[in-house]
């Protein structure tokens, strides 16, 4: 199974579970007079649409290069990650606005039965977040990592709702707004996660550099190929779940063009054989000691 397929399967699990949780949370929130729980349900609905966009992005990114897209369709995965970040920020803004409105207008205290529902939600969402995060690390999918943070934000806001409802119930009259304050605190966490997700997504969509660890690993692989004297230059950008690379290698200047060409292909083969998904590699061969 390819990395795209692994990531897509994880996203489908997210969609199915979020659909069930959204129905439970919104229904319980309405019956139990808890806007924090309704807000949680709204975020789960938002998570469904975000997950759908991630799934579509992963499926498009899997398509091979064609005449219109000679470098492939990998950018669709980065665009899905950008959408995921923006949708998280939008959900946080919607919940924050309604929370402030509720704080300014007194309303009925939440019901006790909303508490065990929230406990179940927290356990399920945190478990789903860890599963998606593990698959994100396995596939290097930024969009899937964004999906994982959607789940974690949901678990955190559910935890805030649990605390707020408990305070509202224990405090009695005058403490009804604790439920809404909890939803507002949860919004801050949503915004924080959304900001960091947006920063990463913009970096990748703007062809930002890969991590220094990845650069060093590519240099080490290239330098071990017989005939390579040194790695002179290296550029790399992420596309989909892999990386495109331009690498300049220096070889002995007295070698024939054919021999230098062979060494360049050996460098390509060594990099593609690694587990880092170096997809498109352009090797520029230079005589040792010459910098271009």
From TrEMBL:
One of its GO terms (cellular component) is membrane. One of its GO terms (molecular function) is monoatomic cation transmembrane transporter activity. It is found in: Membrane. Keywords: Membrane, Transmembrane, Transmembrane helix, Transport. SUPFAM superfamilies: Cation efflux protein cytoplasmic domain-like (SSF160240), Cation efflux protein transmembrane domain-like (SSF161111). The lineage of its organism: Bacteria, Pseudomonadati, Verrucomicrobiota, Verrucomicrobiia, Verrucomicrobiales. It holds the Pfam family ZT_dimer. Belongs to the cation diffusion facilitator (CDF) transporter (TC 2.A.4) family. The keyword Transmembrane applies. This is Cation diffusion facilitator family transporter. Residues 12-202 form the Cation efflux protein transmembrane domain. It is a multi-pass membrane protein. It comes from Prosthecobacter debontii. Residues 212-288 form the Cation efflux protein cytoplasmic domain. The chain crosses the membrane at residues 12-31, 79-100, 112-132, 153-175, 181-198. The keyword Transmembrane helix applies.
């Amino acid at each position: 199974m390819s990395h795209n397929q692994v990531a897509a399967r994880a996203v489908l699990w997210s969609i199915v579970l979020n659909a069930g949780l959204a129905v439970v949370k919104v229904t319980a929130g309405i019956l139990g007079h808890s806007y924090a729980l309704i807000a949680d349900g709204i975020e789960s609905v938002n998570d469904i649409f975000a997950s759908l966009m991630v799934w579509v992005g992963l499926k498009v990114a899997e398509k091979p290069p064609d005449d219109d897209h000679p470098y492939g369709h990998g950018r669709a995965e980065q665009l899905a990650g950008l959408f995921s970040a923006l949708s998280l920020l939008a959900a946080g803004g919607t919940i924050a606005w309604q929370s402030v409105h509720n704080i300014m207008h007194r309303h009925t205290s939440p019901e006790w039965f909303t508490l065990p529902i929230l406990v179940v939600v927290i356990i399920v969402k945190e478990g789903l977040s860890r599963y998606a995060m593990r698959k994100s690390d396995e596939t290097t999918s930024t969009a899937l990592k964004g999906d994982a943070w959607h789940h974690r934000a949901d678990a955190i806001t559910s935890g805030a709702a649990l605390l707020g409802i408990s305070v509202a119930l224990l405090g009695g009259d005058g403490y009804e707004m604790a439920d809404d304050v909890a939803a507002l605190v949860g919004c801050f966490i949503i915004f924080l996660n959304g900001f960091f997700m947006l920063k990463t997504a913009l970096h990748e969509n703007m062809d930002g550099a890969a991590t220094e660890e990845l650069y060093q690993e590519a240099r080490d692989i290239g330098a071990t190929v017989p005939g390579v004297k040194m790695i002179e230059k290296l550029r790399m950008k992420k596309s989909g779940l892999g990386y495109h690379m331009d690498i300049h290698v220096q070889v002995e200047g007295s070698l024939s063009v054919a021999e230098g060409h062979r060494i360049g292909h050996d460098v390509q083969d060594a990099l593609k054989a690694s587990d880092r998904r170096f997809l498109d590699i352009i090797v520029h061969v230079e005589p040792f000691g010459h910098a271009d």
